[in-house]
Amino acid sequence: MILKFKSNLVLRLVLQVTIYYIWRERNDRKHNNSSRPVDHVAKLVDKMARNRIYSTGYTLKPRLQDLMRRWFEANSF
């Protein structure tokens, strides 16, 4: 049950961060005529996801203690 909760939480978080950066990239291309390479956007998504996990205080909350580990397991490509 808790494992599914953590997986869903990481999935929702990454989905939100990805949508945000795609939206931001679209606006930059439309309004500023500038674009970033795909690998740069992927690094931004990774960094933001790690920052969001870190900001949850995951080490202090029992249900969230393995959240960062789950992120690194899913992101080991």
Summarize the structure.
With 77 residues, the chain is an all-alpha fold.
> Could you estimate the helical fraction of the residues in percent?
over 70%
The number of helical elements comes to 3
Q: Which class of secondary structure composition applies to the elements?
A: mainly alpha
Total individual domains: 1
For the report, how would you describe the main beta sheet? none
Calculate the terminal CA-CA distance, rounded to whole Å: 26 Å
**Poorly predicted sequence stretches spanning 5 or more consecutive residues:** none
What's the alpha carbon Rg, rounded to whole Å?
14 Å
Judging from the principal axes of the Cα atoms, what is the shape? elongated
* Proportion of beta-strand residues: under 5%
Mean pLDDT over all positions:
84
- Record field, number of beta strands: 0
SSE sequence, one letter per element = HHH
Task: Walk me through what this model shows.
There is one protein chain. This protein is elongated. The protein has helices spanning 2-32, 38-55, 67-74. The chain has one domain. The chain has three helices and no strands. The two termini are 26 Å apart. Keywords: Signal. Residues 1-24 form the signal peptide.
